Amino acid sequence: MPREDLFLLFYRNIGICAHIDAGKTTASERILYYCGATYKIGEVHDGAAVMDYMTQEQERGITITSAAIQCKWTLKDKKYVINLIDTPGHVDFTMEVQRSLRVLDGAVVLIGCVEGVEPQTKTVWNQAEDYKVPRIIFVNKMDRIGADFEKALISIQNKLTNNYVVLNIPVGAEGDFSGVIDLITMKYCFWDSDEKAKEYQVLDIPDNMKEIANKYRIKLLDTLMVYDDELTEKYISGEELPKEYIRSLVRKLTIDNKIIPVLFGSAFKNKGIHQLLDAVVFYLPSPLDRSEIIGFSKETGENVKIVPTINSNFAGLVFKIVTDIHLGNLNFIRIYSGSLKKGDVIYNVKTGEKYKIGRMIRMRSKDKEDIEVGYAGDIIVVPGCPSMFTGCSLSGEKKVFLEPIKFPKPVISQKIEPITKEDSNKLATALSKLLNEDPSLSTEYDEESNSTVLCGMGELHLEIIVDRLKREHGVNLNISPPEVNYREYLNKEKGSFEYTHKKQSGGAGEFAVVCFDIERIEPEKELEFVNKIRGGAIDSGYITGTISVESGIKNALKQGPNAKYPVMGIRVTLKDGAMHPVDSSNFAFYRASEYCIREALNELGTHLLEPIAEVEVSCPTEFIGDVQGDMNRRRGRVMQQENKSDTESILVFEVPVAEMFNYIMSLRALTRGTGNYVMKVKSDLVQVPPHKEKDITKKRSNFK
User: Fold this and answer.
1) What pLDDT does residue 653 have?
2) Which parts of 605-678 fold into alpha helices (H)?
3) Which CATH architecture has domain 293-402?
4) Separation in Å, CA 472 to CA 55, 329, 426
């Protein structure tokens, strides 16, 4: 390893991920405090958390947008740089977690000790699996009534992974939670107060905890010995097991995603955060430890290894954009290789646009610190550069594409209408900024009602967007209730169609002939366009582009024949056609393709598909019958039922998203205010029952 790259061993890029209310931001605030990045602890319930700086976050006590901050942790007289990202826990803001995990090297997944693994925990876990991000589990809230660390471990085993190793165990629970036993050093880390103590005592293990501590240490060693013969030999021969050797083995296996370390604590009571920070440094990877990043060359199309060294060709990825009132776009960039300093010239790999870097910033939540240079492994911000976009690959002279970020499709929509002409102008500007910030948000225009349609991930997502339009951008709006984004899907499996577009009215005319094979594919997929034209029957310039065969197809698919919803799950193959040397044009082929697809859709027919959600309801057991009956009326079906305790039950349903608007009010009424639920929209679509489709089609009959 080159000497100049050694400092990267002391970098950790990590995210804090969990279900809503598991204590992510509370833990993040303690991390900042104990690292010396803040002089006091900001509490979520006071609206004073550093990481939750948006007005909407402070009012609701939830995280909406991922916040980044850098802090330093000293371990064994060495300073480690931690780039920390606190991510949202609400399902409506899953996209924020997705784009954060794309650029992080490690993650801390928080689980509430009482609640165990919850639906959004599983979602972020799967996202981390997709990106192969090494993880630590921190079981939080050991001070809560009902806290039981072994039940939490059972929840992890049943719902997340069998490959966990317990590195410390709690001493006491609820109000008696006093510390943790480190199973590597076999020492008791004891706090004599819940106050913001930066120190704790290291004591011998209490006699009444020795048996259970030995039990879990043996479990830890048994797991590690599966992967390491040398440790096995030392253990069998009765040799002392060096703690540094155990730690190095845990580190290697964690980085290789073979095991998941588990720690316990209570962020709110300021216990266990020191051990968590030590674990982040000990076990999560530096930028040099991650598996190699593969990009591909724009010039050759061949795969290229991205090497995290500071003297390599610069390669970075824009993973987040925030609009600043003074600086314009704040482009958050993860640097994967090389370095970036003021005055450097870099390229947008997709567009070829060149940027000269005039200013660089390191964010501290909402605050900004100017910096001179950023290195491989850094997360930095470059202001300006309005043509950058989320998922944009940036590079030096050797232009290399990095894997893009995948974003979920919107599932509900809501019409908004500006009240005055001034509001209309403000709305256009505001939406341009919000769309740039949030790739999971999209807009459409409804000609019938002369209104803009917001499309998002859920009710809360759209509620926040509307609130920001009003509050941050001063737009006065009329708002319609949210609606589900239905889709149309072919009735018949396939068909072949031909269309001739001919128009002559003096002068140059319009002429184009297209022949398509149309077939049904998986309903969740977008249009697949296949060009099989050979021998120049249609010029290639007419086939793709802004006005072309392909764009004509896409325009026709925006509204299906049944209820004017977009058509999904279709492959269109252009197999033949004809053109005229004078009268053919891009527009002629656009029109021919559009009309041909519309005729084909009418002949093949379509039916409606709708998104479904997995809904987990928790309520007192006495109300199970009422909850199930209500869900039956909503077309829901029970997928799972379990007892959370002697008096509390959990029910998991699959239910159409259309039936879930304002559900919390019904649930609270059914359970006398004691029930709660969480909802995760699934990726698959299901057919709408005929009687419901008839109602939907009737409502949409006047839609143009």
Assistant:
1) 95
2) 624-633, 663-670
3) Beta Barrel (2.40)
4) 10, 16, 11
Nearest to 634 by CA among 619, 608, 656, 618: 656
Type of residue numbered 549 = V
Q: Is 308 helix (H, G, I), strand (E, B) or coil?
A: coil
Instruction: Kindly report whether the global pTM for this prediction surpasses the value 0.70.
Output: yes
Classify burial at 680, counting beta carbons within 10 Å of its beta carbon; exposed 0-12, middle 13-18, buried 19 or more.
middle
Q: Would you say 650 and 616 are in contact if contact means Cβ atoms under 8 Å apart?
A: yes
Structure confidence at residue 276 as a pLDDT band (50, 70, 90): very high
Structure tokens at 393: 């690959």
Nearest Cα residue to 171 out of 220, 209, 210: 209
Q: Taking phi first (over 0 means left), then psi (-120 to 50 degrees means alpha), and beta for anything else, what does residue 404 get?
A: beta
- Beta-carbon contacts of 647 under 8 Å, excluding residues fewer than 6 positions away, are 620, 621
Return d(Cα 331, Cα 353) in angstroms, integer: 15
Report angle CA 536, 539, 544 to the nearest 5 degrees: 130
Helix (H) or strand (E) holding 250: helix 243-255
With beta carbons less than 8 A apart as the criterion, state whether 323 and 436 touch. yes
What string of DSSP letters covers 394-407? Answer: EESSS-EEPPPPP-
- What order do you get walking across the sheet with 164-166 strand by strand? 67-75, 78-86, 11-18, 106-112, 135-140, 260-264, 164-166
CB atoms within 10 A of CB 502: 13
Q: What is the pLDDT of residues 149-167, one digit of tens each?
A: 999 999 999 889 999 999 9
Pick from 571, 569, 572, 636: which is nearest to 608 by CA?
569
CA atoms within 13 A on the CB side of 633: 7
At the top level of CATH, the class of 489-604 is alpha beta
Burial 405-431, CB ≥16 within 10 A → b, else e: bebebbbbbbbbbbeeeebeebbeebb
- Domains in the chain: boundaries: 3-283, 293-402, 412-483, 489-604, 610-702
The reply to whether CATH 3.40.50.300 applies to domain 3-283 is: yes
Continuous segment of H or E residues that includes residue 190: strand 187-190
Q: Is residue 366's pLDDT more than 80?
A: no
**Two tokens at 688?**
């709408």
Pairing of strands 260-264, 135-140: parallel
CA-angle at 166, arms to 163 and 167, nearest 5°: 130
- Answer yes or no: is pLDDT of 46 > 50: no
86: part of which helix (H) or strand (E)?
strand 78-86
Q: Do the domains at 293-402 and 610-702 have one common CATH topology?
A: no
pLDDT-based confidence at 67, cuts 50/70/90? low
Could you tell me which residue, 597 or 699, shows the higher pLDDT? 597
Task: Give Cα 334 distance to the centre of its chain.
Answer: 16
Instruction: Write the CA distances from 350 to 129, 206, 298, 346, integer angstroms.
Output: 28, 62, 8, 12
Residue 338 has pLDDT above 70, yes or no: yes
- For 550, the token pair is 């392909």
* Residues 440-477: tens digit of each pLDDT: 888 888 766 678 888 888 888 888 889 889 988 899 99
Q: What strands lie across the sheet with 201-203, from one edge to the other?
A: 168-171, 179-182, 187-190, 201-203
What gap in Å lies between CA 7 and CA 210, rounded to an integer? Answer: 40
CATH architecture assignment, domain 610-702: 2-Layer Sandwich (3.30)
Question: CATH assignment of 412-483?
Answer: 3.30.70.870
